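agent> Task received from the user: take the single chain below, predict its 3D structure, and emit structure tokens. No templates, no multimer pairing.
agent> Plan: (1) validate residues, (2) run structure prediction, (3) serialize to tokens, (4) report one or two observations.
agent> Step 1 OK, no nonstandard residues flagged.
tool_call: predict_structure(input=
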Amino acid sequence: MDKRKIIVILLGIGLYLLSTGVSYALFSRFSQSKDVTPPLPTKTATGNLSFDASLPKTEACPLNGALYSKQQKAWWEKHRPLGVMIENHQDSRPQSGLSSTDVIYEAVAEGAITRFLAVFYCQDAALIGPVRSARTYFLDFISEYGDSPLYTHVGGANADGPADALSQIENYGWGMYNDLSQFSIGFPTFWRDANRLGRDVATEHTMYSTTAKLWDYAKTRKLTNVDQDGASWDSSFVPYTFKDDAKLSQRPESQKIKLEFWSGYSAYVVDWVYNKSENNYSRNNGGSPHLDKNTDKALATKNIIVLFMAERHANDGYEGNVHLLYKTTGSGKGVVFMDGKEIKATWRKDKRTSRTLIFDSQGSPITFNRGRLWFEILPTTGEVTVK
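)
tool_result: status=success, residues=387
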């Protein structure tokens, strides 16, 4: 009887130890596999967010493939892409915030003066501007970033006709929703700063905002990473594919690209100069380095995507017939620059909300370098010179 009791007791102890050990192992494995919540970013004295630079860069930005930390990804996943109209009149330079974009579209707004659709998502720019008015073809490009992309501008072309951007915004269902027009929002999300550039400039060159203020305002309209119905912004988004940089030994010593949107307007000629060690292109505009006032550094990009599109005047009765149209849908020719090399390309965009697809001469989708995408929209008469 005593032996049986001892055996039962020993078996009980054994089963207890076994179950405890299994439970501990399972708990430890589960605990290790759980993602640790990344720390929140901090704000610098200038007001922009600062992310921990020591964290591993393992997370790809959906817009351009650039790698960032899990901390930064946790931040960007709380909002949606933000498109901002930023002007490029020579009196507006240096602009603020362009070096923090993920994607930029550049095209002539009027009179050979180009304008930017600056797209922000994975980076915080703090101050951005000068913000300017909407144009219809930029609506076509921002439409590629989900059903309700945030679109920021100060008024826009509104003469009756095909260039009536403000009416198109309403027709698309964007008005008072994902359309962030300064005309309907005002201070303190937007404000004018006549002394930002340290010299006197015309009033139209003085409107500013911040990415944080615009994303915060979007929240008041129930637009975060999801819309007011709970649908994620990227449910229909078509990302490009990305690769790592070419090896140093595979890069050329130099490459220089000159772009002329309209012939004879030297203030708006763009030169891109290749840097072999950085494997990127630095931008000159009008013969001078094009700086971001936020950083006092020259703008640069990993990828230059030149798309030739038919350009014409809208003939809408507006003074000087300055309003333009570009044939953004259909197909056309292009050229891509990356890794110090030139790639002949074609483009296709089936409808306003479709992604602009870029193919090489063999008809295969082009894989871009991880980093900023800079789209240069040239008329078919535009000139590209490569040295």
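agent> Step 4: summary for the user.
Confidence is low (pLDDT under 50) at residues 30-34.
agent> Done.
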